[in-house]
Amino acid sequence: xxxxxxxxxxxxxxxxxxxxxxxxxxxxxxxxxxxxxxxxxxxxxxxxxxxxxxxxxxxxxxxxxxxxxxxxxxxxxxxxxxxxxxxxxxxxxxxxxxxxxxxxxxxxxxxxxxxxxxxxxxxxxxxxxxxxxxxxxxxxxxxxxxxxxxxxxxxxxxxxxxxxxxxxxxxxxxxxxxxxxxxxxxxxxxxxxxxxxxxxxxxxxxxxxxxxxxxxxxxxxxxxxxxxxxxxxxxxxxxxxxxxxxxxxxxxxxxxxxxxxxxxxxxxxxxxxxxxxxxxxxxxxxxxxxxxxxxxxxxxxxxxxxxxxxxxxxxxxxxxxxxxxxxxxxxxxxxxxxxxxxxxxxxxxxxxxxxxxxxxxxxxxxxxxxxxxxxxxxxxxxxxxxxxxxxxxxxxxxxxxxxxxxxxxxxxxxxxxxxxxxxxxxxxxxxxxxxxxxxxxxxxxxxxxxxxxxxxxxxxxxxxxxxxxxxxxxxxxxxxxxxxxxxxxxxxxxxxxxxxxxxxxxxxxxxxxxxxxxxxxxxxxxxxxxxxxxxxxxxxxxxxxxxxxxxxxxxxxxxxxxxxxxxxxxxxxxxxxxxxxxxxxxxxxxxxxxxxxxxxxxxxxxxxxxxxxxxxxxxxxxxxxxxxxxxxxxxxxxxxxxxxxxxxxxxxxxxxxxxxxxxxxxxxxxxxxxx
Length: 675
Known about the structure:
Strand order of the largest sheet: 12-11-13-14-16-15
Structural class: alpha/beta
CATH architecture of the largest domain: 3-Layer(aba) Sandwich
Number of strands: 22
CATH superfamily of the largest domain: Thiamin diphosphate (ThDP)-binding fold, Pyr/PP domains
């Protein structure tokens, strides 16, 4: 790289002017952060990060997260100058329909070319690792990215995994509670390869941060176990470089580099105020700002001669990737390790998983216990699955046996997330976004999905292969009462696009559900598992009926001879209630089919012929589920459910008092039939 001091300045100012031009053309965006923090973006992309635009998905690249996602044009401008395939036309299309430069960074993978197993997944915007925007999420995702690197480095060796995670975060990121949860955990386990640049510009959207944010951030982060450094002027590249050197030298602690900046600098009339935060500068102010930078005020989207070469000449990534490729070829000479590596980066288990799960005997037990047996059975086939619970592993039964724990000293597969549901969710998303971690999972009681809904939504938005394992799935929780009894949660999760919810009806369905998610499903999945015991379902086709039916979202459990007068549809523990109700109806001369519908999302993807073979249109239908009835109208004519909050009492009594009984289901069916 040239030693000419003007060369970095020219590149940095190109980032600035591209950013304000794009925001002005879109008449929408956040120009303040890109103007102020362009030196840090330059330092990372042009000088320090190990990355190769020719291979944006290279497994050993450094990861970068713009947690302050409102400043997305900063990253897009840097990606353009670095050579990531974003054209100037893409920059000009900022925040427009179908563009590669949306209003906040989006990790929206699409399929390039033919659809099918051989198709290549590519990011919407090459170089964007995670979707950010909701503040605090990106910074918390970065904790998962750093965990994944450390786990895979211990698993496969530093020859093939040896990189860092860098973050640009704002004061808003540090105000959000999710970042506090994730940062506390990162310090606890000593993620020394995580480096966060904190943009401290004293301004938030409503005005000065002093209105609401006066804590000592450095002291807080030191208490978490982080190294904290400070740079008093973001434009001092030498001090930024020195701080980064110090951060990278300490691999025992994550580092927060506290950087002072002036938002919107050098805009003459808007710098240092909230006017530079969330709105275009205005055409005249853009001209004045360019003049302050020594720029042609009439030039738009200008990249001066030599900037591309200067910006890219210091990137060590291509040479690093070439050296990595040679090491990788030697690594692959060990066939067993190569097999595990390939499965990990394909996001799939090793061969033999379904056979192992089919060997599990059916048991009368809570489906959370079935989940424990299932996880123990599939553990050998997913050696890079990482996950844990929010201080509830003994209740959710989500510990992988003999797989170790992720601690400061060792990177095991089991994680003690602590009572940090939202942080857990964001970290799990980061584990998935990194690659190489097969179906990472987070677990808690279903009621507490409300504490992590933002992370669950982002897993769906990004189509991340994660598993959300929620137990204690109904009012059958019992004595803990309505604060711990989910009622509306199944309906709310089903309402979320691109999220597959599965509520298995017995131990066999639980095993099939896990097999389906691990081997066949794309995107995030929710398991809704019971606290109370569930008897094995008396399936007409035996266990094979479940193995065939659960992946399709629903199937016939039991059918009367000569056709059904009514169909009883259940999920989870209530499939058993439907079975008992069918028996009562049979004693009264009414023939009832029983259907298990564990996943609406999977069922809705089936062809109409299959759907109508399970739920024929000309037969009355009644559902039973221990939750709100909202949504069931799409499948049934009458619904037995709980359209109120629960109560504190033994679980069986709560279910009875609230009408989740075979007697009530049978009576509703007879009412529907006019009997």
